[in-house]
Amino acid sequence: MTGELLLVVNPGSTSTKVALYRGETVVAGASLDHSGAPWATSREVIDQLPHRVRMVREFLKEHGIGPGSLVGIVARGGLLRPVRSGAYLVNEAMVADLRDGVGGRHAANLGGLIAWELSSEGRIPSFIVDAVSVDELGPEARLSGFPSIPRKSLLHALNIRACARRASRDLGRDLAGLYLVIAHLGGGFSICPFYRGAMRDVNNSNEEGPFTVERAGTLPALALLELWRRLGGRELKHRLTSRSGMFGYLGTKDARAVEKKAKEDRHTRVVWEGLAFGVAQEICAMAASYPEKLDAVVLTGGLANSADFVAMVREYTGFLGRHLVYPGEDEMEALAAGALRVLRGEETTRVYPETEAV
């Protein structure tokens, strides 16, 4: 593996991040920006696929790399049917579901499709790792209180599992014996009890939990019904998932600007503190998932870069014990590490879809 190249592909809404790894070492990388491209505004994300594939091919060509020189390709996992954590081989069944948007439409769905195209339809092994649709919820965690609406698992599984491994190393404990509550704090929040190697519960940030930088989180149900009657489903969904939360109160998604303004403006400070208050409440709720002593609370994601925000959360959660702070997220490194584990035989490659219930 030390002399062979692995391509990592991570599509976002306005860019496609790519990197070449030789083992654990990055030898080339780029963020391919397409925010100004006419095709990038296409309402159907799938229409962007040929353009993004072309850009990644150009990146490889610039570095004198043909697809045949790669030992494998690994991409960000999209909105699939429920899957387990780990690396999945990209296959025809997965490609069909990503194209159809079986779990929803999102730029992340393009990851597996780009990998499939570049792998010459499976001739080079291509993988996704820890997709957002990883589902390891326990049966009690699926109950919403309304029988026909089970709770769903959608979360930042890639960064959460990477942080769990890092916590395992820092604590000097085997992952299978740890009980962590991990809070990924980005544009959306995923707060998860990581119990003995599995993510046993999580708030689906599109639907529940604390309000986030741009999402509403849990709302009063009857008031929400009235809002649906007034706005309609499509507009309401848009507002709930990208125009609410901190943005709804303050008109900005820039947490650094909010933190700065909160020092002199009372309303901004209340919202800033409320953001941390909601996170702390969810951490405490998830810490009650098992009648065992927590080994650590882990704070990660973009907001973990703010010492002020971390301090506000810890003011409420300090009684839970040790806190580990891993600011930001390195999705490219996590994707590469996941692929390397299966290429080296350290983990078994999973095959999509699962043949038994998750």
Provide a descriptive summary of the structure in words.
The chain has 358 residues and is an alpha/beta fold. The protein has 2 domains: 5-135 and 332-351, Nucleotidyltransferase, domain 5; 157-328, Nucleotidyltransferase, domain 5. It is built from 11 helices and 12 strands. It has helices at 49-62, 92-100, 109-118, 157-171, 221-231, 233-242, 245-250, 255-261, 266-287, 307-317, 331-343, and strands spanning 5-11, 15-22, 25-33, 70-76, 87-89, 126-129, 179-185, 189-195, 198-199, 296-301, 323-327, 350-351. A 7-stranded mixed sheet has the order 3-2-1-4-6-5-12. A 5-stranded mixed sheet has the order 9-8-7-10-11, with helices on both faces. Strand 10 (296-301), helix 10 and strand 11 form a beta-alpha-beta unit.
In short:
This protein has 358 residues and is an alpha/beta fold.
Task: Provide the descriptors you would attach to this structure in a database record.
12 strands, globular, Nucleotidyltransferase, domain 5, 19% strand, alpha/beta, 358 residues, five-stranded mixed beta sheet, seven-stranded mixed beta sheet, 11 helices, 2 domains
Mean pLDDT: 94
The ordered string of helix (H) and strand (E) elements is EEEHEEHHEHEEEHHHHHEHEHE
Compute the number of structural domains: 2
The largest sheet is: 7 strands, mixed
Identify low-pLDDT runs.
none
CATH architecture label of the largest domain: 2-Layer Sandwich
Q: Give the % helix.
A: 25-40%
Strand content: 15-25%
CATH topology of the largest domain: Nucleotidyltransferase, domain 5
Which structural class best describes the helix and strand composition? Answer: alpha/beta
Number of separate helices: 11
